[in-house]
Design brief:
By secondary structure, the chain is an alpha+beta fold. Strands 1, 6, 7, 10 and 13 form a 5-stranded antiparallel β-sheet that branches. A two-stranded antiparallel ribbon has the order 2-3. The protein has a two-stranded antiparallel ribbon with strand order 4-5.
């Protein structure tokens, strides 16, 4: 018996070590948040054209965008007060800096240049950032409606591209605007890596830019005006945040399923954390229910053998059906859906393997502990051993209590079954 017990412990330790070693692969998990890698079908003309352009042409400049609009629907941006706000915001943006690998980078270090000047497209460009040129509304309207609206770099600027919600008078002259948009063009020093492009320095500056504008917005630095922001990295950030939000929901779902499993089986056991979502928890219920139907007078190995003989074909059929269904789905050309199908198929396969090996092993240890009077939370610790006759109700560990039918079985047998046998129900 002692040798058998040591063999059981050794087998459990070996399986646990194997599971832990396999889970180390999670450290290499990366989140794919590039839209073209998720939602554009592979091996298509669009992907080929994109690769051709990336190989033979320079990458387009990165961009940081700020939008300002009055909080009041009747507000107007073509006023000296509003232009002062735009100017102050511009000053905040050009002093944004970041550190990468111990090196300090400023806006002037990273901006895309047109001659000696950083490339910017915004309404203040045609005023040359000179406050004396917008100190009255009349001056503002005169410049905005002028024939020669040029930036500090000498490029012609179409004011309708940087001002939104424009209103005109009878002579088709601009007399009002609801929003102003400023574009700050940044160098693109992306390098190809792992099938994509990376520019950690610009990414870091853009993050500092987004954080700074968020601070200004949260602090209500510019009363009566609303501030919005965008950068080249924003799309990837949104994809990443959506994925991370799904992971939080997944963790919550796991917790809810564990609580549900505990409630329905009416017993705390160390095997419960191994109940998986969906098919996993279904297989666990099938195995536990079938084990409860075996003869308690038999030895634990014999009870487990009968359990697997009766329930094994059922969980094998359902698991393999779902596995092959997802593998077929993995043939889709849509990358995001293909990744999902492969992940689900591999998860189902390994879940099935763990159910018929590791989970069954945990059940064996759990049953042996109950036979010997050990607490679930203490495993083989002798200090937790108690005579079963001395235990009534639930202990602090929730370990020992008289065996009773699970809540779900009790409900089906006595509540629902009794109701269905009622003459009034039959008559209805």
């Amino acid at each position: 018996m002692e040798a058998k017990k040591e063999m059981q412990e050794l087998t459990f330790i070996e399986k646990s070590a194997a599971n832990i070693s396999e889970s180390l692969g999670l450290s290499q998990l990366t989140v794919e948040n590039r839209g073209d890698k998720l939602w554009v079908p592979t091996d298509t003309q669009a992907q080929d054209d994109k690769s051709y352009v990336e190989d033979y042409y320079a990458r387009s400049a990165r961009i940081a965008i700020s939008v300002v609009h009055p909080t009041n629907d009747d507000g107007d941006l073509l006023t000296p007060e509003a232009f002062d706000v735009l100017y102050k915001l511009h000053q905040e943006i050009i002093v944004v800096e970041t550190t990468h690998d111990g090196t300090l980078y400023t806006y002037n270090d990273l901006c895309e240049r047109r001659g000696a000047n950083c490339s910017v497209r915004g309404i203040l460009e045609i005023f040359e950032y000179n406050e004396t040129k917008w100190d009255t509304r009349e001056k503002i309207l005169a410049v905005v409606n002028g024939d020669d609206t040029r930036t500090t770099a000498g490029d012609r600027l179409d004011v309708e591209q940087v001002l939104g919600g424009l209103t005109y008078d009878s002579s088709d002259k601009i007399i009002g605007a609801k929003a102003s948009e400023s574009f700050y063009f940044m160098q693109n020093n992306e390098e190809k890596k792992d099938g994509g492009f990376e520019d950690p320095v610009e990414d870091a500056w853009e993050q500092a830019y987004l954080d700074r504008l968020l601070e200004l917005k949260d602090a209500n630095t510019y009363p009566n005006y609303e501030l919005e922001r965008f950068a080249s990295r924003s799309f990837s950030d949104e994809f990443g945040s959506a994925i991370r939000a799904d992971l939080v929901m997944l963790q919550l779902a796991i917790f809810v399923n564990i609580v549900y499993a505990v409630t329905m089986t009416s017993k705390w056991s160390r095997v419960l954390p191994f109940l998986m979502l969906g098919i996993g928890i279904d297989d666990a219920f099938v195995l536990i229910h079938q084990f409860d139907m075996t003869d308690p007078g038999q030895s634990t190995p014999d009870r487990l053998k009968v359990m697997l003989m009766e329930a094994g074909p059922s969980i094998t059929l359902t698991s393999m059906t779902d596995f092959f269904a997802f593998m077929i789905g993995a043939n889709t050309s849509l990358p995001a859906l293909r990744y999902f199908c492969i992940y689900a198929a591999v998860g189902i396969l390994f879940d099935f393997i763990l159910q018929v090996t590791f989970f069954v092993g945990c059940m064996a240890i759990d049953v042996e502990n109950k036979r010997k009077g050990y607490a679930d939370c203490c495993w083989y610790a002798t200090c937790c051993k108690r005579d079963l006759e001395q235990v009534s109700g639930t202990t602090v560990c929730g370990c020992k209590r008289p065996e009773k039918e699970p809540l779900l079985m009790t409900f089906m047998t006595y509540k629902l079954g009794g109701a269905l046998k009622d003459k009034r129900v039959k008559a209805g």
